[in-house]
Amino acid sequence: VISRSLTGERGHQNLEAMKAGMFLRKVKSRTWKRQRHYKLQEDCKTIAYKSSWAINSYSTFSISDVEAVRAGHQSEALLSVADEFPADRCFTLVFRGRRGNLDLVAESTKEAQAWIQGIGALMENMENMDESTKLDQWISDWFSKADLNKDGRINFKEAKKLLKMMNVDMNEEHASSLFKMADKSKSETLEDQEFVEFYKMLTERAEVLDLFQDYSSDGQSLSQCDLEEFLREEQLEGEGSYEHALQLIDRYEPSDTVDGFLMYLTSPEGSIFNPERQDLFQDMSQPLAHYYISSSHNTYLMEDQLKGPSSVEAYIQALKRGCRCVEVDCWNGSNGEPVVYHGHTLTSKILLKDVITTIANYAFKASEYPLIVSIENHCSIEQQEVMARYFRDILGDMLLTNTADSSELPSPEALKRKILLKGKKFENESENPTGEVSDEDEAAEMNKDRKGQSVFSTPLFNIVFDCLLLPHLSDLIFCKSVHFHSFEHSRTSAKPNEMSSFSESKARKYSKEAGSDFVLHNTRQLTRVYPSGMRTDSSNYCPVDMWNMGCQIVALNFQTAGMEMDLNDGLFTQNGCSGYILKPEILCKRERLFNPENPEKRDDYHPLLFYVISGQQLPKVKQKAWFIVDPLVRVEIFGVPLDQAKQETKHIDNNGFNPLWNETLQFTIHTPELALVRFVVEDYDKASRNDFIGQYTIPFTSIQPGYRHVHLLSKDGTSIHPSSIYVHIKITEQ
């Protein structure tokens, strides 16, 4: 499928200009602007760039790594040079994952348009490729990499180097035999079609062929009856098997051979993730307190908590990932303009006005469900006037200010496309919040955590909270921050829109001492949990412990990749990536107490069997040509303490291309509604810590049983297609 914007005269001219290459100015700040030479490679999928002073050392990035192209002054760096470079020469490449943006300035409007339109068209073209075309593209990529002298053919020496590049260690005799079988022309080289045969022999998957032949009536093809039997017996599709078999035959016709079967197994339908849970499938009309809400901590920070940059880009990244609760720490700024930063640290400051504008622009791009903006207000009365005006004027009708009395919170459905402010509030003129320090003032909490352990020579968080609250600002607050006294006090006195915040240590303390009371509290009230003040490196705590208690707003440092964010992404990937997941019934019922620390004995526990079969095209962890991985698979279960477990396979020496494990890992899940399953692939190292290769995290309730592919993600949570592991999953009920 070729995009129209690539085939027209303008599209052709854009590509030719990009292939010829040109100097673009890379901008990091008002004072950092450097010339770089950028050019599109012949494969039309890779962009190479180098410093003007470098001779031949080009670095590259793939078009598939680019998520969006923004034209004009649409970044902080380009806005800072707006007086120097006009908007029609500026553009920003936004990358997937946590990689920073690339801000560029062209020499002319025409050159800028060539890159903006050209990259946009190439991205569209990639998105439109079907699985078969992607596979052809994948094979042609390997051919290009192997064809070192670019003569359109590869010899055996080049083929051996290719095997190393592909992460496979094959003995020379076997490699030579495959090469000769593919060399039909007997020219001792492989041309394109011969190379496709060589590739197919390399990638032939005996484990899939065995399964295919188990169900094929004639050993050569799968009839409709054969496929229906496979779907019913192995994939446990029940009554839907007949219809699904017809659909698959129609989709992969005329490939009724093992190739078509493999295409099905590696497609999204053959994935471990149940497609019925991918789109919005949950009831969204229950009170807000009945949902987990994807939440970010100190959203404005790009790196650590002490000296890293603050940026509106951090809000854009979080909101694009479906985050539904962001944090804004407001402080007095110069010229009467409130600023956002991590108070009393060396983190940089950004204007509150820019933060609110960004939130207004991106609030509902990924999800239509309500966005909560958690405000820490440290401003004077004068600057609170400015805050209130910005919230009202910039957010307009999106801002929800109606806090009409009700016995429970409204639902996500009722609050679609609404922004809710959370912060200090007083209900009437006689109420005076002066000097009250509630637990949502993290700086105060951090002061307690960090006594005598300051990073600087003077205490970092020795702050006195004695500012008054402006009534105009108080009126805009929907979720009222309150100090937590006790579960009993909350049960008898709390209003539905009141919420308390807990540091991770305090939340853990309450969960150990009064688990059932905490769960009951969270059936009615929203609870926010945030990382300990000791986590100055922006590390994260395990969110599962808090979700087990029914805590809704479990705030994490979105900028920090790792297991904790994998779990967050895994939970919120379902239900249309809406940022809202309906809590299990056991955490919403007020009549029946549940304690995750001591779950009641349940009759319906689930033995879970994972048969880890094989892996495909695993990426290298070190880019040296001779380096080949020794992969192992670890399966980790997160959930109630009784269900927490991990097991791993043995490692396979020197094969990242098609390792075969054929091992069974067995787990017993007592509380499946709260369980998350994380698959981790690592490169075994006996002398030091294993290197991470890829992972995939999925809620237990979203798993499809049967023969499935687990499509691996990078540390950043982005796809590393076509890397996957092939598993056989059995879930039985006792």
From TrEMBL:
Coiled coil: none
PH domain sequence ranges: 16-124
Ranges of residues in domain PI-PLC Y-box: 476-587
Glycosylation sites: S185
Cofactor note: Binds 3 Ca(2+) ions per subunit. Two of the Ca(2+) ions are bound to the C2 domain.
Pfam families named among the record's database cross-references: C2, EF-hand_like, PH_12, PI-PLC-X, PI-PLC-Y
Residues bound to substrate: K422, K424, S501, R528
Catalyses which reaction(s): a 1,2-diacyl-sn-glycero-3-phospho-(1D-myo-inositol) + H2O = 1D-myo-inositol 1-phosphate + a 1,2-diacyl-sn-glycerol + H(+); a 1,2-diacyl-sn-glycero-3-phospho-(1D-myo-inositol-4,5-bisphosphate) + H2O = 1D-myo-inositol 1,4,5-trisphosphate + a 1,2-diacyl-sn-glycerol + H(+)
The enzyme's E.C. designation: 3.1.4.11
Location of this chain's protein in the cell: Cytoplasm; Endoplasmic reticulum; Membrane; Nucleus
Protein name per the record: Phosphoinositide phospholipase C
Annotated source species: Cyprinus carpio (Common carp)
